[in-house]
Design goal:
The complex is a heterodimer of chains A (468) and B (496). By secondary structure, chain A is of the alpha/beta class. Chain A is built from 20 helices and 15 strands. Classes of the chains: A alpha/beta (468), B alpha/beta (496).
Chain lengths: 468, 496
């Protein structure tokens, strides 16, 4: 039983969390032609925008309802409407994803009704989906925001009860196939990845699913919008990602796969609305998890596992053989949101390392009970710095750099934000290849920080007196 | 009228502000921050502005009282430098939860947070920043600060600039007011000298204040307080005993400079350390002001000697770049003083200025641009990202100098770009700074990557006629909405 210690301090020192609306905004950014809209004061948006730009090194469309003093007192409905109309006129997005903030939620208005009114009064404003995620900053963090936004998109956009239509649609597609081509049903797989999957992870996941002849629909899909390509003209909205049509047709999938415990709610919702069954992978890192995933793909598609994937698995096994020498007995300190904490902690302990400090953002996630650590502190990087003293490696986002410097312990940057390293979105962390890459990265940090032995360090007697 | 709105009104009628002087009484009252257009707004809030101005005070604990985002999404993101204490880089927030807000526990939490910080870090002072939510639920931060100051025996300064009251710029000024109300003049220095000055609105980004300080040292001028760059609480508290002041970023702290003149008779002038001529002028005016306040007139000669020496060295070093940069076209998208102060030196070595933004520039700034550029066609207020992108992708400039907000517009348009705002990695102030700036421009323009990123793939040239749409572009209908009206757009580049 993992003991989860709640936060008891009054002053948070060096926050670990990024805010909930930011998590929701990230999810909306994974939809094609989208603009996330923060309902709050313009600072809420400005801070989030700057952080996103520092992380992705891309232009990021993010807008604000710019609530001022008056709106704070009398209500923000007018600002919400004006913002939607302005966005519609200037950028004509396919989707406006509204993320409420602490300011708007402390006032607490009936946003859903306001949006319904705006839609009713402005019938001509069709063609743009408006999705609301209630994401006050005073609750949750990235995980919750992301999960709420995905659930909100499914709730709002996905057509209900598609199980019957699915078979009909499939036969239509079958009929227009080229003569002579094998009449295979193109089975569709709905994949709901957690926020902690990188752009490279999503791309890799897609390739893997496609190699079984399946058609993956990934929501949200940051690999289209924030993948570091250079568009050939100025785009005021996201220029890639899941299409709104694909979200509408999610019900035609044969199976839904969620990655990360925080995707359970959206996956359940999809099942409830459309009947598509879901399977949840709490992590896609590590041999066993990936084996289970690959077997599932093979089972659904009826296609044997391609040799290429088998080869990846074999490479991972070799990496485990080479890597475990560096991991065994190492003390690891991790500060991350619950699902990422689980993913990383199981990864490290899976190679013989030990988790000496685990800090996370919220105590509500069920995954925490499965984290291979003695205890978990709900807290901040201040707590992390205190707990991580004797560790060999710190694992957290870029804000951990101050702690790493003060403690003199190397830092492996994971998650969001990673503002002082390039290419964080192109790092693989899942499936055989991602696990292999992570082994290499961590092992290389261990090797780079190896201390050459000195007589003092090795001295048997001195060590004994220290131990006593 | 609450004390906050009284304070804001007071800032709106600031007599030293040039823009204000040109307005009538009614217009002045309405205030200077234009209401933002929802869905088409950009830039930070008042809290952001207040934090930007105060946070570089290095030994103070800065505690943000509010829900997570205000601090959690924004800490450790500015490149100001400290020569000693690092406490300013440690982030403190009360991280209010839903329960704190509903149960009305936020004031108590704040008090406990202050105790926690005092016990763990023993800072010389704690600054407490109000935010939208704490203002909305009516927390009496002032009272909590007062009580904590008595109880814990250290100055606890309330910074009342919640985000919704207005723009970043208003927040800058509210920060100045907080210093006037609670900090400046609270400690009497015992080492007052005839050559003491304050530098106001210098942030020590990338340590560039340290490019200036040796120059002042050589003149025998002592900086009593540089606010806020590399400042200590005590220096700020003693700054009322300076003999003269230089105001570097006038849009941010004009009220502070004017009120310090009013209260403590510290005359000030507005100047800049960006550009060679501007630096010389600033040094000269510091000397003149000190002499006026009774310093030995010899300092004027010393200043002239130093300027002559330093200018000669700088021009000689810049000459190297002339053949490499002659005729290259620069777009300056920064505003304020930099809209003109950089121009002179760049033109002097043969570069062409194709445009300069006059956002946040004063009338005086604009007048100087006209003088330097000989016409005002190349001044623009601000440019929407789409227009900017179009201009750059049509190669109408060889380099853009701007801030992080527009960085990726330039880079995505495959145009060389250099950061001259707060996230820059190189110091550009003073004589050496200008040479460094030109060196960086040269490096940016002549980087070998440009031909490689601009050239299409060889197979695209062969089948050019077919024009295949790229996989990542949207359908035309959704992507390009004609911009009928010219409005302020995303990324209104308000930076200081």
């Amino acid at each position: 039983m993992v003991h989860v210690y709640p936060q008891t301090k009054s002053a948070t020192v060096n926050p670990l969390k990024s805010s909930q609306p930011l998590g929701a905004a990230l999810a909306f950014l994974g939809v094609e032609g989208a603009v996330p809209l923060f309902h709050g004061s313009q600072g809420c948006t400005s801070f989030a925008l700057v952080l996103c730009v520092r992380h992705f090194k891309e232009t990021v469309p993010l807008q604000t309802t710019a609530m001022d003093e008056l709106a704070t007192v009398v209500g923000g409905a007018g600002h919400l409407e004006e913002a939607i109309l302005n966005l519609k006129e200037r950028a004509n997005p396919r989707l406006i994803g509204i993320c409420t903030t602490a300011l708007a939620e402390t006032r607490s208005e009936d946003f859903a009704r306001q949006i319904a009114n705006i839609k009713m009064m402005r019938a001509e404003e069709s063609g743009t989906e408006i999705v609301l995620a209630n994401t006050p900053d005073f609750d949750g963090a990235l995980e919750e925001g992301w999960s709420k936004a995905v659930a909100a998109m499914i709730e709002r956009i996905t057509r209900r009860g598609q199980q019957a239509r699915r078979s009909k649609k499939a036969t239509v597609i079958e009929r227009i196939r080229e003569p002579g081509e094998q009449p295979l049903k193109p089975k569709k797989l709905a994949i709901l990845p957690g926020w902690h999957l990188t752009v490279a992870d999503i791309e890799h996941l897609r390739e893997m699913v496609e190699s079984f002849g399946l058609k993956p629909v990934i929501l949200p899909d940051l690999s289209g919008s924030l993948d570091g390509t250079v568009p050939d003209r100025w785009m005021p909205v996201t220029y890639g990602g899941t299409s709104v049509e694909d979200i509408q047709e999610l019900g035609t999938a044969v199976q839904c796969i969620g990655v990360g415990e925080h995707m359970r709610r959206p996956a359940e919702l999809l099942q409830k609305l459309t009947g598509v069954p879901y399977i949840l992978f709490q992590s896609l890192t590590g041999v066993r998890n990936v084996d289970r995933f690959v077997s599932l793909l093979s089972e659904i598609s009826g296609v044997p596992v391609p040799a290429k994937i088998h080869r990846c698995r074999s490479q991972l096994q070799d990496a485990l053989l080479d890597g475990h020498l560096h991991f065994a007995g190492k003390k690891i300190a991790i500060a991350a949101e619950p699902d990422q904490l689980y993913q990383l902690a199981t990864f490290f302990t899976g190679l013989g390392a030990e988790i000496v400090a685990a800090v996370t953002t919220t105590g509500t996630s069920e995954i925490l009970q499965k984290v291979p650590a003695e205890s978990i502190q709900i807290g901040d990087l201040g707590d992390f710095e205190k707990l991580a003293g004797g560790a060999d490696l710190l694992v957290t986002h870029s804000h951990g750099r101050q702690a790493a410097e003060r403690l003199g312990i190397p830092l492996l940057r994971v998650g969001f934000p990673a503002f002082d390293r390039l290419g964080s979105q192109h790092k693989l962390t899942i499936l055989y290849r991602g696990t292999r890459d992570m082994i290499f990265e961590a092992a290389n940090i261990f090797q780079a920080n190896q201390h050459t032995p000195s007589p003092e360090m090795v001295d048997a007697l001195r060590k004994r007196s220290n131990a006593g | 009228m609450s004390s906050l709105s009284a304070k804001i009104q007071d800032i709106f009628v600031e007599p030293a502000c040039e823009k204000n002087r040109r307005k009538d009484a009614g217009a002045r009252k309405k205030g200077c921050s234009k209401p933002q257009t929802p869905g088409a707004a950009a830039g930070g809030c008042a809290f952001d502005g207040a934090k930007v101005v105060l946070q570089p005070i290095t030994d103070v604990a800065h505690l943000v009282h509010g829900p997570l985002a205000c601090e959690g999404n924004s800490w450790d993101n500015r490149g100001t430098a400290s020569s000693g204490p690092t406490l300013w880089r440690t982030s403190f927030t009360t991280d209010l939860t839903e329960l704190d807000i509903i149960m009305g526990q936020s004031e108590r939490k704040l008090f406990h947070a202050l105790r926690q910080i005092k016990e763990a870090y023993a800072p010389p002072a704690i600054f407490v920043y109000a935010t939208c939510v704490t203002e909305l639920i009516g927390d009496d931060i002032q009272a909590v600060c007062k009580r904590a100051a008595e109880k814990f025996g250290l100055p606890v300064v309330p910074i009342n600039a919640p985000g919704f009251v207005g723009s970043k710029n208003l927040g800058n000024k509210l920060a100045g007011e907080a210093l006037l109300d609670h900090v400046i003049g609270t400690i009497e220095p015992d080492d007052v000298g005839p050559h003491d000055i304050n530098i106001l609105g210098e942030f020590n980004l990338s340590g560039e204040y340290w490019l200036i300080r040796p120059l002042l040292d050589r003149l025998g001028v002592r900086v009593r307080a540089c606010i806020p760059g590399d400042a200590r609480y005590r220096e700020v508290a003693c700054s009322h005993r300076a003999r003269a002041a230089m105001l570097v970023c006038s849009t941010a702290l004009i009220n502070l400079a004017r009120k310090m003149e009013e209260r403590w008779q510290i005359p000030f002038f507005e100047g800049s350390f960006y550009g060679i001529a501007a630096t010389s002028e600033a040094l000269r005016r510091i000397a003149e002001l000190l002499v006026k306040r009774g310093a030995d007139a010899q300092i004027l000669d010393r200043t002239d000697t130093l300027i002559a020496e330093e200018e000669a060295i700088a021009w000689k070093r810049l000459e190297v770049y002339r053949p490499r940069l002659k005729g290259k076209r620069v777009l300056i998208n920064s505003g304020g003083v930099k809209s003109w102060s950089l121009v002179h030196a760049l033109m002097e070595i043969g570069m062409e200025i194709v445009g300069t933004s006059v956002k946040k520039s004063t009338a005086g700034d604009k007048e100087r641009i006209k003088q330097v550029l000989k016409d005002d066609h190349r001044m623009f207020e601000s440019m929407a990202p789409r227009e900017l992108y179009t201009m750059l992708s049509e190669h109408k400039a060889d380099i853009m100098l701007s801030g992080g907000r527009t960085q990726f517009i330039a880079l995505k348009a495959k145009t060389p770009w250099l950061d001259i705002n707060q996230e820059r990695h190189h110091p550009y102030a003073g004589y050496d700074g200008m040479v460094e700036l030109v060196r960086q421009i040269d490096l940016a323009i002549h980087n070998p990557i440009w031909s490689e990123v601009r050239e299409p793939a060889p197979w695209e040239i062969d089948s050019h006629a077919e024009e295949q749409p790229s996989a990542h572009t949207l359908t035309e209908a959704a992507g390009v909405a004609p911009s009928k009206t010219r409005r302020h757009d995303v990324g209104d580049f308000a930076e200081c």
